[in-house]
Specification:
Blueprint (H helix, E strand, L loop, with lengths): L2 H24 L14 H24 L7 H11 L3 H26 L12 H11 L5 H9 L3 H11 L1 H15 L3 H24 L5 H4 L11 H17 L22 H16 L3 H20 L5 H21 L6 H14 L1
């Protein structure tokens, strides 16, 4: 069951991992765990699996048993027997490992971009000119800052933009652990792997910095926001990387350069989550929240200068491709009503 999804996720993870190792050899750099400050991966990944297992079982057991000690063992065993089947465990382990290898490889390959920029053309000038043409001769930053201001709206957009960081692992856990339909879990996990891989390809295919790094004077009024601080930090680490003669001379234990414009993975992943919610749930308010989240995130990418308009359009394309490929691999019908009806039927029979 779900053989295509297994093969595709494993192939992507192996391919991305091999490219990351090759890039590290070519550029004489170390492979870095982007979340290594939390602890080694051989301890962190089992901990994540254990947390997913515990968070699913313990609160539900206490709720369903109404804290009755006599009912707790039976409720616990019932959930373990009906939900944590061999197929569920396979999905969780495969999904997390494939995503983790793909994401870590993506971060390392993205970090190597500064060391190849001298060998090729960057396309910031072309994309910036396209932005001005789309905004009738005006810089998008100036238009958006005048339209939205740089007070409350800046802080709100910053919060929404940074919400992306916890959203990625949280959304993956939701579909792997709590989706009643295993196919939906494979759909999202596979789509995630495809999206991060296509994002990596786009960085190398059309290298850019992004308007906020290429034209920082346009964004000085929003430097005091959380997103502005993050941009300044990334700019500083990137300058450090470019001005260092060899990556191996740097202490890369916690260092990864994270600057790349085309395409916007913020747009791609938030749209992918919205599409998944649209097709796999019947909760109307949840759909509205995540479609709004996608729109606000897209505006924030332009407002803070992380991306050009073309970057966001490319992010939409990546999301659609990843969504389709993940659905194909997991055997989905791509009918919103049929998918929602299946989920609703499962909810009513549990």
């Amino acid at each position: 069951m779900f053989r295509r999804a297994h093969i595709l996720m494993a192939s992507i993870a192996v391919g991305m991992g091999a490219l990351a190792v090759l890039a590290a050899v070519i550029f004489d750099a170390k492979l870095v765990d982007p979340d290594g400050f939390i602890g080694p991966s051989y301890l962190r990944l089992p901990t994540v699996l254990a947390l997913g297992f515990g968070i699913d079982l313990v609160p539900r057991t206490l709720w369903v048993s109404r804290l009755d000690p006599r009912r707790i063992p039976g409720v616990f065993r019932e959930r373990l027997r009906t939900h944590w089947t061999r197929d569920r465990v396979t999905l969780v382990v495969t999904g997390i490992l494939s995503f983790y290898i793909t994401y870590v490889s993506y971060r390392n390959l993205k970090s190597q971009l500064p060391f190849i920029e001298g060998r090729g053309h960057k396309f910031d000038r072309e994309l910036f000119s396209l932005d001005k043409a789309l905004f009738l001769g005006h810089e998008p930053a100036i238009v958006l800052h005048h339209l939205l201001g740089d007070g409350f709206s800046a802080e709100f957009l910053s919060s929404v933009y940074l919400w992306f960081l916890p959203l990625v692992p949280f959304a993956l856990a939701v579909w792997l652990v709590w989706s009643r339909n295993l196919g939906f879990g494979y759909w999202f996990a596979t789509s995630q792997c495809v999206a991060w891989t296509l994002g990596t390809v786009s960085y190398y295919a059309l290298p850019t910095l992004g308007p906020g790094f290429q034209h920082p004077w346009l964004y000085q009024t929003i430097d005091d926001t959380a997103a502005g601080h993050l941009m300044n930090s990334l700019a500083n680490t990137r300058v450090w990387a470019v001005n260092t003669s060899a990556p191996s001379l740097m202490d890369l234990t916690n260092f990864l350069s994270g600057v790349a414009g085309f395409a916007s993975l913020h747009v791609a992943i938030t749209l992918l989550v919205a599409l998944m919610i649209q097709y796999t749930t019947t909760i109307r308010w949840l759909k509205i929240v995540f479609w709004v989240n996608t729109c606000v995130t897209s505006v924030a990418t332009l407002y803070f200068g992380w991306h050009y308009v073309a970057d966001d359009i490319a992010g939409v394309a990546i999301a659609l491709i990843a969504f389709y490929v993940g659905g194909w691999a997991s055997g989905q019908s791509f009918s919103r009503h049929r998918a929602a009806d299946r989920e609703l039927e499962e909810v009513t029979t549990v």
